[in-house]
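Module 6 notes. Inverse folding takes a fixed backbone as the condition and produces residue identities as the prediction. Think of it as a translation problem where the source language is geometry and the target language is the twenty amino acids. Below is one complete input and output pair. Work through it position by position during the lab.
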């Protein structure tokens, strides 16, 4: 979409690959400046530089932070820096929560070392679910997001369905959807809408970390009415449309962006 109908800033959590990367590029193309939060080692930083260059080449600003988005002190430091920029009050219109970092271990196995531990479970829930609440709280508290703001969380069919080793992530997705509904209730009076985007199976770096992802991809291709996988761009385009000023009445939902994949058994 080349038409620039959005303005202000978008904050993308998990901006260096997959859904986060696609959202950063699509929202920038639609007219927004981008704050990106990501966690990358030296080997993957060139991709971050490529994303930043593309955003700036389109005439938009790009400010990226290589931090752990679930760290409270790092979160405060990022928001301190954003708040210090001139004219930022109420200008952060979109938050996209696309953090995909969790433990992929079963609950039950033959040995204790094979099963998920309490710290691993808590880390998965904190990063992939609870951090949505903390970032949103801080944005609203600081006055960075106000009326006509949009908050998007990225969920999956795993929030309602099971897959071996996916238990903790599935629990996190279910919690993320619950947080989305609660935030929609509490932010409604402020004119901020909150929705979860349920993407179909998408070939991203996060998906490839799931044991058995090859089978997951084959099953999705077979049952999807459109005959293909969801792409990060499909999801990003939906988020751009839902960020339109006239889409503010859509809130509190889990919105499928999957070509009808979820409805097919």
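Target side of the pair, the amino acids:
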């Amino acid at each position: 979409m080349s038409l620039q109908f959005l303005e202000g800033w978008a904050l993308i959590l998990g901006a260096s690959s997959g859904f986060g990367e696609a959202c950063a590029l699509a929202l920038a193309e639609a007219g927004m400046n981008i704050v990106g939060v990501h966690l990358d080692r030296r080997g993957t930083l060139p991709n971050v530089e490529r994303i930043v260059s593309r955003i700036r080449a389109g005439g938009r600003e790009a400010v990226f932070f290589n931090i752990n988005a679930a760290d409270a002190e790092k979160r405060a430091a990022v928001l301190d820096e954003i708040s210090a920029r001139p004219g930022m009050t109420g200008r952060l219109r979109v938050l996209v929560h696309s953090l995909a970092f969790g433990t992929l271990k079963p609950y039950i196995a033959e040995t204790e070392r094979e099963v998920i531990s309490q710290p691993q479970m808590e880390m998965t829930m904190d990063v992939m679910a609870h951090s949505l609440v903390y970032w949103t709280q801080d944005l609203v508290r600081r006055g960075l997001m106000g009326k006509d703001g949009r908050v998007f969380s990225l969920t999956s069919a795993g929030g309602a369905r099971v897959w071996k080793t996916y238990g903790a992530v599935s629990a996190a997705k279910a919690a993320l959807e619950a947080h989305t509904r609660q935030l929609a209730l509490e932010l409604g009076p402020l004119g901020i809408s909150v929705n979860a985007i349920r993407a179909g199976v998408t070939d991203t770096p996060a998906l490839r970390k799931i044991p058995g992802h090859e089978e997951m991809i084959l099953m999705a291709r077979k049952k999807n009415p459109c005959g293909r996988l969801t792409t990060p761009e499909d999801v990003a385009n939906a988020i751009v449309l839902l960020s339109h000023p006239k889409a503010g009445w859509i809130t509190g939902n889990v919105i499928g962006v999957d070509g009808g994949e979820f409805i097919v058994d």
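Reference fact for the lab report: Residues 105 and 114 are 7 Å apart (CA to CA).
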